[in-house]
Amino acid sequence: MSVQGIDVYYGETKVLHDLSLKVENAELVALLGSNGAGKTTTLRTLSGLLRPAKGEIKFDSHSISELSANRIAGLGISMVPEGRGLFTTMTVRENLEMGAFAKRARREMKKTLDEVYSLFPILKDRQNQLAGSLSGGEQQMLAIGRALMSKPKLIMLDEPSLGLAPIVISKVFDALKALKENKMTIVLVEQNIDGALRIADRGYLLENGRLALEGNPTEIRNNEMVRQFYLGL
How far is residue 222 CA from its own chain's centroid? Predict the structure, then answer.
């Protein structure tokens, strides 16, 4: 995916300013920054929920800037939203099956379901339990698993560590690392900069809707601004 100089507005308020970034195949890219930096707006734009007023977004070399969210999802882009968006009165298994909405995903649903259960064994143990009765960490695993059921080429995650205990955050990040090692392309939005940089190939730091810094994890971690204001070093 490539993003070239996009501006994005909420009403008359400009939220993203001439933003450019890229995500290579089988790469985990971290989109970092504090609250209000524009991270979620970026994901909503990439998934078609918002339209850029300027610039272009390409996926597999095809422009998707004007496509609807359902058409973009059909191309193989899946998002795990902040707040998870689960069907809380449905079972774990039913939630996972809802993720396999595309024809190609339905054809391979049994195989993909086994892969999700292998990645998150607790979901298999809880498959007949209502999603709303799961712990916060289990719900996050379910949200990721549901996104994987669509057989995505690119998965985007919005603050997957938010509100979770440290031990659960480690499990979620370990799962993302395993997906990366299996050649999944991932965009990870995180305020947990230290944790995200441990598993990312590259990162972008946003401030007030503008790109403030980009580079590999070592370059970002060693930046004086990042060390002082984000890592507390």
Answer: 25
| DSSP 8-state class, residue 98 | H
Sign of CA dihedral 39, 43, 49, 54: positive
The dihedral built from the CA positions of residue 62, 64, 68 and 69, taken in this order, carries a sign that is positive
Distances in whole angstroms, Cα of residue 183 to Cα of each of 41, 152, 153, 160, 179:
26, 11, 10, 20, 7
Cα separation, 211 vs 17, whole angstroms: 8
d(CA 78, CA 7): 22
What pLDDT shows up at residue 41? 97
The verdict on pTM exceeding 0.90 is yes
Mean pLDDT over residues 127-145, rounded? 96
What DSSP character marks residue 69? H
